[in-house]
Amino acid sequence: MSIVPWKTEYKKKYTTQSKFFMPEHSKFLGETQRVWVCVLKISDLSGARRRADRPRVVVKALSKRPGLELDRWVKTSRRAKRMRVVNVVYEAMPQPAQLGGRDNPFIKPAQKTEVDAAMKQLRQQLRCDGYTVNGDMTVWHLYIIELTPLLRDSGNSSGYLYVGQTSQPLEDRIRQHREGHHNLKGQRLHSLACHKRFLRPRLDLLPSQFNQTFYCQEDALTAEADLRLAMEADGFVVEGGTEKLGVRRQELGIDSNEGDV
Length: 261
Description:
This protein is α+β, with helices and mostly antiparallel strands. It has 2 domains: 33-133, no CATH class; 141-252. It contains 8 helices and 9 strands. The strands form 2 sheets. Strands 1, 2, 3, 4 and 5 form a 5-stranded mixed β-sheet that branches. The chain has a 4-stranded mixed β-sheet with strand order 8-6-7-9, sandwiched between helices. The longest helix is centred in the first third of the chain and has 24 residues, at 5-28.
């Protein structure tokens, strides 16, 4: 029986592909891999920094051991070039003996969950320290708004204020309070007390230690509570700054009844 030419070609192609792909698939099935949590410095050509003395970085789990192997990868890898990696930020990485550090790598896939958690935690730590992580330029600032006096104020207080923190431009956040903005779902984007008694912004009242940039919301919320306590200590009646207020009063040994409106 004669063989049809196209069937011969099909059989040849199918057999060749099978021989090529099957061993490759079998090679990676169940394979384990050592990985290290690495912090890579990205070229400033990629964009601005949040803080001038902290570079743009990415956090990656790589199969390259920190040291000569990782340094060589940065200089020669096409992937590193595509990512615009220019160096390794060793001082921001786990210490050699720590999990994910040079002498204590993670094992994938068994520890994939732990790897993801470690990278998430490190990214947050770096953000709080001012690094620009994965291109995120978010920063926070504090603000003060003066409110119309309370009727029950006998004139003994220095004034009535609202304090807050925001990652938006200050003018936009203050406008939300003044105009009583809501989001598309109808949820309030303003403080009721601040909107009702809004008088004017008072950024001039910000003490110098609070007139700065904060690089993560956790720090901004703590500073917001401390700002309220500082203004109350100066004789003001204060709204806002409540999210971490109880914790800060406890940590600072301040009676929870002090300064209450």
